[in-house]
């Protein structure tokens, strides 16, 4: 790109401070132009740290930028991202993209109708290790099953333990999209939730049916006292067993840089389809809502 993309950041929490803001400020294709949050003091602190402006209102932010990056709870994101898309702004979305399927469909439709670029921050999907693993798995084929485990103590202590939306949504809302996305990408489209169970302390087990008679299982919790986080994925079939482990620290900064590489390229070339665009977010929202239905209304 001849000029750096002007990006506004919505949100001032730990994830915005540690990943979004430095990523946007340091990337050669973007500049962190303005910050807006519903807490002016948080916006000021974050903007001052990265030489960005503070927007007094969301509308003011939209008037200053070409794109908006969201680091806010799902319900807030869906509401504001629809307005951003309708204003012709490209969007970087967190997962899950909305609180439910209805809101996710409205957001996906708004992005499509506006013709803007969109990417969802599915952290693992942008890492080199994951891309290489998925490529090798896809080239080999012949997989009949798979499993995943994502276990952490993030809601017991640490920077995210005070997050209300994470406590409300639990592991399903926060890490579920990551887990479901990789199983789906590795083994084929998930077509049905065959079973699901959630314990009182938020340990969730799910069984999926994929297209082509493939099955997989997942276990996830954010209330297990382990460090570092256990995030393991595996597929098995006629070519044996292929595993992928999330590296300690998660590599969020590197993944966000890779996301911005793709985002800037999409905008420069007029490309709107991507394996992690808003339609992917909608597909994952549908899976998430089906799992919730199975867990809470069995």
TrEMBL record:
Origin: domain of life? Bacteria
Sorted UniProt keywords? Oxidoreductase
Instruction: Give the GFO/IDH/MocA-like oxidoreductase domain ranges.
Output: 162-240
Q: Which InterPro entries match?
A: Gfo/Idh/MocA-like_OxRdtase_N, Gfo/Idh/MocA_oxidrdct_glycsds, GFO_IDH_MocA-like_dom, NAD(P)-bd_dom_sf
Q: Which residues form the Gfo/Idh/MocA-like oxidoreductase N-terminal domain?
A: 5-117
What's a Pfam family in this record? GFO_IDH_MocA
Q: What's the name of the protein? A: Gfo/Idh/MocA family oxidoreductase
Source organism (scientific name): Amycolatopsis acididurans
| Taxonomy of the source species | Bacteria, Bacillati, Actinomycetota, Actinomycetes, Pseudonocardiales
